[in-house]
Design a protein that fits this description.
The protein has 304 residues and is an alpha/beta fold. 35% of the residues lie in helices and 13% in strands. It folds into 2 domains: 3-83 and 182-281, TIM Barrel; 97-150, DNA polymerase, domain 1 (Orthogonal Bundle), CATH 1.10.150.650. It comes from Thermomonospora echinospora.
């Protein structure tokens, strides 16, 4: 089995609709893919509607957290999407994203960058505004040549000239919330420097004590030394090791399936989840369903 446990769609900061992500996952030879948009499950209905035969969808989310001003991302899998506490927390995070986004655009304008909030909001569509949307607006304005150039101290990296802080829960509290909703939490890209992360071993041990299931070790932004260290730490803390592409479509170079999770780890994750189950396509569905919008998730209970 080829299993990719981290991907994004236009429901957050990916560049392709959920259905397209599912079709690309199938074309990449994946058997299992998790859709983990930032602080929302709004893309899951369309992903499920477009799911090709032979591909399993793991409902998930990448939950934003903060530890002492440092951004920490928590992958949450197979939780109950109607859980009241988790739903309310995600709504609070998304509202703070909007406020943060407006402030960052204001700072960019003060620095002479010809972007507007309307442009950024248009790029985000119905999704929560994220820094990648702002980076894309900066490219469109001609200020930078590539979105990656926005994530520096000169612009919108943490501590950068146009960066602004937002609300997010403390990681141990977020882990307990995911567990209470029947979900399974994994720490995303613990050593991906450009994201402002870099939790110490002691901090990761604290998360393990709070109920963390695993570490996303095999990630495109992790070098060999980081992977070796994190594997040893996971073994010491009895945490699972996952691998994922963290695909964002065009923004990340279409890398679905570049990193994968071992089948035995996936089985352990399924055994711990009580909030939801993976989704498989009906047997009669074609392997490549026609392109087009799926049914809206707005009326699906728990979609937020």
């Amino acid at each position: 089995m080829r299993i990719d446990m981290h991907s994004h769609s236009t429901a957050s900061d990916g560049t392709e609709p959920p259905g397209t992500v599912m079709r690309r996952a199938h074309q990449a030879g994946l058997d299992v893919v998790a859709l983990t948009d930032h602080d929302t499950v709004a893309g899951l209905p369309d992903a499920a509607a477009a799911l090709p035969a032979g591909l399993t969808l793991v409902p998930g989310m990448e939950l934003s957290c903060l530890r002492e001003g440092t951004s920490v991302h928590l992958l949450a899998y197979l939780f109950d999407p109607a859980d009241p506490a988790l739903t309310a927390e995600c709504a609070r995070i998304r509202e703070s994203r909007e406020t943060r986004g407006r402030r960052m655009v204001e700072k960019l304008i003060e620095l002479g960058v010809p972007v507007t909030w309307e442009q950024v909001r248009s790029l985000a569509g119905d999704a929560p505004v994220g820094r990648p949307h702002i980076a894309r607006a900066m490219v469109a304005a001609g200020t930078i040549d590539d979105p990656a150039q926005a994530f520096t101290d000169a612009w919108i990296a943490p501590g950068g000239r146009a960066h602004a802080q937002r609300y997010a829960p403390d990681p141990p509290a977020a882990i307990r919330m995911v567990r209470a909703a029947g979900g399974v939490p994994v720490l995303a890209h613990p050593r991906a420097g450009r994201r402002g992360q870099g939790m110490s071993d002691a901090q990761i041990a604290e998360l393990a004590a709070a109920g963390l299931f695993g570490l996303e070790v095999d990630h495109p932004d992790h070098g060999p030394a980081d992977r070796e260290h994190l594997r040893g730490l996971a073994a010491d803390l009895r945490l699972a090791v996952t691998g994922s592409s963290d695909d964002h479509g065009e923004l990340s170079g279409h890398r679905l399936g570049r990193e994968t999770t071992a089948p035995q780890v996936y089985e352990r994750l399924l055994a711990e989840a009580t909030g939801a189950r993976p989704i498989t396509a009906p047997p009669h569905r074609p392997a490549h369903p026609p392109a087009g919008p799926g049914p809206s998730g707005r009326d699906m209970p728990g979609v937020h």
